[in-house]
Each structure stands twice: as C-alpha cells, then as structure tokens.
Design goal:
By secondary structure, the chain is an alpha+beta fold. The chain has one domain. It is globular.
Length: 96
C-alpha cells in the first residue's frame, strides 16, 4: 500500500509532499491507512484559517484508491499521528 501526502498553505506557502509505503509506518498507523482506504473520500469543507495548512492524503493499494482532504482544523484526531509520521518524509513539492 502507498501513501501520498501533500501539505499546502502556511505563511511561506511552500507545498510539501511525500510518498511512502505502509511498511515504513508503525503498525497502528498502517492499519489506519488501510481503514482510510476503505472509507469514503473526505472533501474539505472550506478554505480553513488564513495561513493555515491544508492536507491531502491519498492511499492506494492495487486498483483501490481513496483521497482524503482536510484543512488544519478539520484533521480528525485519529489521523494526526499518521500525518505527522508521513510528513517527516516530506520534501518541497514541485508546483501542482
């Protein structure tokens, strides 16, 4: 399973991205990624706070893909640790 991460926004406006395999995650976070693959995609409700971050997390396993989007204030507590772990692998992203 692959997890694609993108964080955008913030004061500097530098997008960050990462792509890792679920085998690089702690077991509980890999299990959460699998659960996200099985749930409906979550579109973000709004633009969020000025200068706040927005997150896009895409989970892919074979032909199954789910993309979840959140503003900084919308990120579920259960997902924060996963975003933090994947975010540690992030590098400045090429322009979208």
């Amino acid at each position: 399973m692959r997890i694609e991460y993108r964080r955008s926004g913030g004061v500097a406006g530098i997008d960050m991205s990462a792509s890792i395999g679920s085998e690089e995650l702690p077991a509980a976070q890999a299990q959460l990624a699998d659960q996200l693959l099985s749930t409906d995609s979550t579109p973000t409700a709004g633009s969020g706070a000025p200068d706040g971050f927005s997150y896009v997390l895409t989970v892919q396993d074979g032909e199954r893909t789910r993309t979840h989007q959140w503003t900084e204030n919308e990120v579920p507590d259960t997902v924060r640790a996963l975003l933090a772990t994947v975010g540690k692998h992030a590098q400045p992203a090429p322009p979208a």
